[in-house]
Design a protein that fits this description.
Helix 1 crosses helix 5. It is globular and about 80 Å long. Helix content is about 55%, strand content about 0%. The chain has a two-stranded parallel ribbon with strand order 1-2. It has about 325 residues and is mostly helical.
Length: about 325
């Protein structure tokens, strides 16, 4: 997030914050000609100026104040980049924009180009399900954003172990950090996911996600906000435990979000070598149908060790029910 925030500050937020909370509003400048814009902001009585001056802000040194008065009006903000309230608001905005963009772009592409629309004729596919999935996701995003904010803020404030220079740990560690990240997050998501199926928790937190017995890619984020947050914790925790190159972390973070969407396309392509290793759409389709199997995110090993693995078999394909209904003339 700190990488994205720096880019956003340079492109957009520096200008926006300079207009919303201008430094000149907090600087008294009686020597400035009354016709100048600075005078309007700094000395002219107005409700807006009074409101601005009531906002908290870090101390303004004489040097900074002098520089503000001698520079182009509104070019600086009283809330600098490292000011916590500004960072919190900026990060929240970026998170909301980011989660909506990732969801609608990746889920939309998967829905239109990968998802088999014939599955919408399955007897367990709900009426207006796609709309319900999207509405459920949109309701979850604000709560997930609020709960995730402390992680992003700790990252932005420099408490994580992310680094920029590849030479700091070398190329070997950079390459090995990818499987380390995937294995770490997969294992802990497995146990978090399995815990969410405990009877004392399932009804209140995870059950909404299992409303979608035949999910579409839009079901990937259609869950209770606490459910979505808890399963994301390993992604955030990793960089506070292990060093990870900053750009690589961003790439992996986007990739795992795409994977979460991809495995919800209800496909049951079986017989491939990788299905013994990779927890793909076929495995997750069985999870939605049978509930108590295939809790893993990317790999099958945790389910095998935990005794919850269910292998995708052709006879378990839910599309067979669609074909049977067609043959019986129940659907077109």
């Amino acid at each position: 997030m700190d990488l994205i925030l720096n880019v956003a500050d340079s492109l957009v937020f520096d200008t926006v914050w300079a207009k919303l909370v201008p430094l000149t509003a907090f600087v008294d400048a009686p020597s400035i000609p009354t016709s100048s814009p600075q005078a309007v902001l700094s000395t002219a009585p107005s409700a807006w100026t009074d409101l601005l001056r009531s906002l908290p802000h870090p101390p303004i040194s004489a040097e900074i104040a002098s520089g503000a008065l001698n520079s182009t009006v509104s070019s600086l903000s009283a809330w600098p980049r490292d000011y916590v309230p500004r960072q919190m608001i900026s990060v929240t905005i970026l998170t909301i924009i980011g989660i909506h963009a990732l969801y609608f772009i990746f889920a939309g592409l998967s829905y239109y180009f990968i998802f088999n629309h014939e599955m919408m004729k399955h007897p367990k596919f709900l009426k207006n399900q796609v709309r319900q999935e999207i509405q459920s996701s949109l309701r979850a995003f604000p709560g997930m954003t609020a709960l995730t904010l402390p992680w992003f803020m700790a990252e932005v404030r420099g408490y994580s172990q992310m680094y920029d220079d590849v030479g700091k740990y070398g190329w070997t560690y950079l390459i090995l950090s990818v499987p380390l990240y995937l294995l770490f997050t997969d294992y802990f998501i497995y146990w978090i996911h399995r815990l969410l199926h405990h009877p004392l928790i399932y009804k209140y937190v995870h059950k909404p996600h299992h409303k979608w017995l035949i999910p579409t890619p839009f079901a990937s984020h259609a869950f209770h906000y606490l459910d979505g947050y808890l399963q994301s914790v390993p992604y955030h925790a990793f960089i506070f435990i292990f060093p990870l190159q900053r750009v690589l972390y961003l790439v992996l973070f986007v990739a795992v979000n795409f994977w979460s969407i991809f495995i919800h396309d209800s496909e049951m392509i079986t017989g491939g070598f990788w299905e013994n290793i990779i927890n793909g759409p076929s495995h997750h389709t069985l999870h939605h149908l049978f509930f108590t199997c295939n809790y893993g995110q990317y790999f099958t090993w945790a389910d095998r060790v935990g005794g919850s693995y269910k292998h995708p078999m052709p006879e378990l394909d839910p599309f067979l029910e669609v074909q049977a209904a067609k043959k019986a003339g129940k659907i077109e």
